[in-house]
Design goal:
single chain, 456 residues, alpha+beta, six-stranded antiparallel beta sheet, 19 strands
Length: 456
């Protein structure tokens, strides 16, 4: 995948809330320390016991990226809806800076099922985009850009519907596009047709334009499914972002056999690895990753491609990267994104289980460096508690055992408190507004092991 990068706009996620999503009835997180007057380190770590909703936030951000990028909802999106619930809702707040203005925006999407010929399909039942115009620096009253209810005709507010009818030319074309978006499980607000008409619409529609560019070019998600293929030695996802050529993307590199890529992709990945190696050799002394070109040939369409292989180099020793540890493959996969977060404010990166396979002390070093100097936004989940010792309480979110209030910030934390120690004490003794851990019993677990053994 290769997309164009736009650097003259700035978008950042301010917060996200989910309802009836996976195992969460309701949960809300403030993700950013951003405001319009001050840019601070913007790192958020999400912590909690297994199955308590950490990954739900990363998954929700991934879904929003797909929706805003005008991609079809995954057919298995039903698995994200809580059992016995008919729909799931996601709300995301963004800060959007364009050439003309600064806005705080809120996008809400309601996803449900549509039955056709005894089969269910995921559809967007409702969606809305509202904004607050900062204009002269002061936040003004809330305005609705577009609200779409696919159970009803037309759009809200009425004067927006009138604006769109004019640029579509024929009201029937507008109605057809709205219905087509619904039937294909896509967003109407972020549809390609509407995007193409934005130059003919009032200036506030530039919010849609900025969000679409952000989702395609500056928002990166690293989910477990992607890295599971690396752990299985099938492929490793290499992220690249070329600022001089204004391109970004992810290229999966095969691990068990050579991968064929275009010459353009080869150059992009090569440049990405050259940048990554500057940091990799400091994280793991003596290690360098090299992209080796094996041969050139024409593919089935007659386009020249190259077969490549990723190598791990330590001194004079070269081995295919598939023989390296899962931790090293994880670092190789994500390090270019972390370099981008450190250097560029336009980037948002969300990583599930950032600690997977990475040495605890090294993870703490990386997070501390980012927390002190990163210009972009990093959202991560982790089971490793080392980052609790290097991040401020404002940069941390904890899951609770209450599915109706799934995420909280720790209260009564002083500047000299060790948050890691506080978290351990809270797990045992409580002391926060919500219970953070469903207590387990060693005696009951021991008996369960014994009973399970009797069934062998």
């Amino acid at each position: 995948m290769v997309v164009n990068v736009v650097n003259d706009e700035f978008v950042r996620i301010l917060g996200i809330s989910i309802e009836n999503f996976k195992n969460t009835h309701k949960g809300q997180i403030k993700l950013s320390s951003m405001n319009t007057n001050k840019l601070e380190s913007d790192i958020i770590g999400i912590y909690g016991q297994n199955g308590s909703g950490k990954t739900s936030i990363i998954t929700a951000i991934s879904m929003i990226k797909k929706i805003i990028s005008n991609k079809r909802l995954d057919e298995d999106v039903f698995k994200y809806m809580m059992v016995d619930e008919l729909s799931t809702k996601i709300m995301v707040k963004f800060l959007v800076e364009t050439k003309n203005n600064t806005y705080e925006t809120e996008y809400i999407v309601l996803i449900t099922k549509d039955k056709r010929e005894d089969e269910y399909f995921p559809v967007i039942k409702k969606e809305s985009l509202v904004y607050w115009d900062y204009g002269d620096g002061n936040k003004k009253r809330k305005k609705c850009l577009i609200e779409v209810d696919n159970n009803k005709n037309g759009l809200k507010p009425v004067y927006r519907y009138d604006q769109l009818k004019k640029v579509f030319g024929d009201e029937n074309d507008l109605i057809v596009e709205k219905k087509l978006s619904y039937r294909t499980g896509k967003s109407f607000i972020f549809s390609s047709v509407l995007y193409g008409l934005i130059p003919n619409l009032p200036v506030e529609y530039e919010i849609i334009k900025a969000l679409k560019r952000y989702a395609r070019s500056n928002l990166f998600i690293v989910e477990n499914e992607m890295l599971a293929l690396s752990d299985a030695n099938l492929m490793i996802p290499i992220v690249f972002r070329s600022y001089d050529r204004h391109e970004a993307g992810v290229i999966p590199i095969g691990l068990n056999k050579p991968k064929s890529i275009s010459l353009q992709q080869f150059d992009a990945v090569k440049k990405s690895l050259n940048s990554s190696n500057k940091v990799i050799e400091k994280l793991i002394p003596g290690l360098k990753i090299e992209l080796r070109m094996l041969n050139k040939h024409l593919d089935e369409e007659g386009i020249e491609v190259v077969d490549i292989e990723l190598l791990s180099i330590r001194g004079n020793r070269e081995i295919p990267i598939r023989y390296e540890s899962d931790g090293i493959k994880k670092i190789v996969s994500i390090i270019h994104l972390l370099i981008g977060v450190y250097n560029y404010k336009v980037l948002t990166v969300a990583i599930d289980e950032i600690d997977s396979g990475i040495f605890e002390y090294l993870l703490g070093e990386i997070i501390e460096i980012l927390s002190k100097g990163a210009k972009g936004q990093l959202i991560f989940t982790s089971h490793n508690l080392r980052p609790l010792e290097v991040l401020n309480n404002s940069n941390l979110v904890f899951t609770t055992s209450n599915s109706h209030n799934r995420f909280i910030k720790m209260k009564n934390v002083n500047s000299n408190n060790n948050i890691r120690d506080m978290y351990y004490r809270t797990l045992v003794l409580d002391g926060q507004e919500e219970k953070l851990y469903n207590n387990t019993s060693q005696i009951k677990i021991k008996r369960a092991f014994e009973k399970a053994g009797d069934l062998l």
